Amino acid sequence: MPSLSQKELLLIQDQLARERNIQKFTTFAASQCTDSGARALLRRISGDHERSYQAVARHLGKAQVQ
What we know:
Elements: E1 3-4, H1 6-32, H2 36-62, E2 64-65
Parallel strand pairs: 1-2
Helix pairs in contact: 1-2
């Protein structure tokens, strides 16, 4: 299992927060969008960021903090 320093852990947590914020923003923007093409694109971007968030969180759960 990998070990993380406190600084590395904080950086990863910051990235998780960014991923979540982008996911929430694009989900909201898609709900407000009247153009079907733009709405589909925003939903896809939202899904991409949700998957990124889940992947980072999963890896973070496997890491140990030094």
